Recover the amino acids of this structure.
């Protein structure tokens, strides 16, 4: 019994320490008004005027106010060949209040700040390989099974949506940040392919589970918060803080003559 209490206490410390440090170190601010928060582009996405090729990108940014101490908001942006702008697919919880689907598809800047928080690029695919993914992404977004539901914790939320689309679209395999709370909320059953496509995960209601995958490493989910280790690129993963270890993984490879780059969020 004593050993169990020691282990439980250690786990609770791990779960609480990251969010507290995120606040203490200024990574997250409790100040601000959503009506006046900065939503400007940070000029990460290629300008359609000079880059006519098809583009698929995935972004993450700290959630607004106290939510940001725990996790990030993620979204997917696509641009067809020759299109004048980007189409952004994401889940926005407040849409449910007016009886609408929480899934939002809009023509907005793909790299805009999320209510003041600077976005980070997680995935970038261009050219013919990207063009082949765009319609499957749209279909997966339309088929999201929780379009009438939204829960900040443990899900389904914006990260549940992005994880769903990733699992449904071959070729969109990427590792979502450990701070993407809700990514482990499974739409159907308890076992699923890990978002990276390099392993599997077992989860119960988004609050208890494990991922074992080549890209994600070994991740444990407890009470909706995730922590673990990455053995491929040695690092530890903590709630609220993300990856602590080697620099950002940027694995570049050629696909059909185009460049595909995937990024894993580090702190």
């Amino acid at each position: 019994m004593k050993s169990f209490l020691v282990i439980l206490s250690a786990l609770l410390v791990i779960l609480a320490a990251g969010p507290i440090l995120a606040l203490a170190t200024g990574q997250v601010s409790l100040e601000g008004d959503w009506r006046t928060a900065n939503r400007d582009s940070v000029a990460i996405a290629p300008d359609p005027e000079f880059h006519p090729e098809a583009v698929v990108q995935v972004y993450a940014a700290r959630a607004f106010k106290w939510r940001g101490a725990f996790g990030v908001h993620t979204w997917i942006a696509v641009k067809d060949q020759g299109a004048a702008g980007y189409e952004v697919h994401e889940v926005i919880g407040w849409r449910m209040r007016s009886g609408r689907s929480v899934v939002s598809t809009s023509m907005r800047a793909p790299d805009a700040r999320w209510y003041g928080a600077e976005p980070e690029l997680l995935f970038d695919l261009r050219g013919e390989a990207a063009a082949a993914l765009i319609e499957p992404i749209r279909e997966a977004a339309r088929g999201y099974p929780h379009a009438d539901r939204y829960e900040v914790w443990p899900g389904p939320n914006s990260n549940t949506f992005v994880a769903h689309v990733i699992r449904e679209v071959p070729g969109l395999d990427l590792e979502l940040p450990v701070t993407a709370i809700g990514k482990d909320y499974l739409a159907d059953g308890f076992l699923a392919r890990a978002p990276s496509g390099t392993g599997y995960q077992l989860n119960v209601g988004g609050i208890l589970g494990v991922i074992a995958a080549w890209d994600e490493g070994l991740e444990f989910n407890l009470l909706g918060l995730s922590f673990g280790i990455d053995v491929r690129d040695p690092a530890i993963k903590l709630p609220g803080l993300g990856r602590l270890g080697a620099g950002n993984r940027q694995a570049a490879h050629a696909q059909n003559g185009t460049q595909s780059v995937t990024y894993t969020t580090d702190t």
Observations:
- The CA atoms of residues 203 and 209 lie 4 Å apart.
- Confidence is low (pLDDT under 50) at residues 249-267.
